[in-house]
Amino acid sequence: MFKILFLGDIVGKPGRRAVSEHLVSLKEELQPNLVIANGENAAGGVGIEAKLAEEIFHYGVDVITTGNHIWKRKEIFPYLETNAHRIIRPGNYPAGAPGKGFCIIEKEGLKIAIVNAQGRVFMAELVDCPFRYLDKLLQNELQGCDLIFHDFHCGYMSFLFTCQQCLSTLEVSGKNYQQQQNLHEQQTESLVTLHPYRNEQLELH
After folding, report:
1. Torsion over CA: 138, 178, 82, 95 (sign)
2. Active site residues
3. pLDDT (0 to 100) of residue 203
4. What is the structure's pLDDT at 44?
5. What percent of the chain has pLDDT over 90?
6. What is the structure's pLDDT at 161?
């Protein structure tokens, strides 16, 4: 079995400290093959900086996903371009936006795609339709992937459930389509791996 451990959101210094203190033991306990974390709020609770992304990678995270707060700190823009293989932003922003909305890595002999997209309901940013964006990826760049992990960043519960129903019907060449819904400003839940730590245990108030 291929295991994915997803962490999200890492919020500010308390969140980074929680990762530094607990990720090693979590990896020993759960033995994940891949660790993904949403880091869009790692810098003071909003946005992320290059040095903080490097810090998170140093703790043992393989790939960082983000959301609309990725644009809050402009100094991250060049880093998104040079590290697009391990830190991604929602891909349904207009062409020319820094970085990429997906990356493809190889682990345990598998070709794995990590995809980031953003919803449009009650979100301030003007983004392309996430469903059309995903359809295009599935028909082109993601062909041949053994596993697809999707961090969907949105802000409306009903919209989330609609997305869940739509995405759960997707199948890629007869292989599993794993998805993860990231609730904007709410606790993130992963359909792949969810560890039963409570917020107060990690001091993420």
Report:
1. positive
2. 69
3. 32
4. 92
5. 65
6. 53
- Scanning the structure block, which residue is given the tokens 């033991």? 25
Give the residue-averaged pLDDT of 1-18. Answer: 94
Helix (H, G, I), strand (E, B) or coil at 98: coil
Q: For the chain, first and last CA: distance in Å?
A: 34
Mean pLDDT, residues 84-93: 96
Rounded to the nearest 10°, the torsion over CA 148, 151, 152, 156 is 140
The confidence band for 125, taking pLDDT boundaries of 50, 70 and 90, is confident
Distances from the Cα of 125 to the Cαs of 71, 74, 96, 121, 170, in angstroms?
Answer: 10, 16, 15, 10, 26
Q: What are phi and psi of 8, to 5 degrees?
A: -175, 150
d(CA 114, CA 86): 9
State the average pLDDT over residues 67-83.
95
Cα distances from 37 to residues 14, 17, 25, 138, 194, in angstroms, run: 15, 14, 16, 23, 12
3-state secondary structure of 78: helix
Task: Return the exposure string of 31-44: e unless at least 16 CB atoms fall within 10 Å of the residue's CB, then b.
Answer: ebebbbbbbbbbbe
Residues 6+ apart with CB under 8 A from 200: none
pLDDT of residue 186: 38
Beta-carbon contacts of 128 under 8 Å, excluding residues fewer than 6 positions away, are 92, 93, 94
**Cβ neighbours of residue 24 under 8 Å, at least 6 residues apart?**
59, 60
Q: Which DSSP symbol is given to 94? A: P
Strand residue runs (E) in the chain = 4-7, 34-38, 63-65, 102-107, 110-118, 147-154, 177-183, 189-190
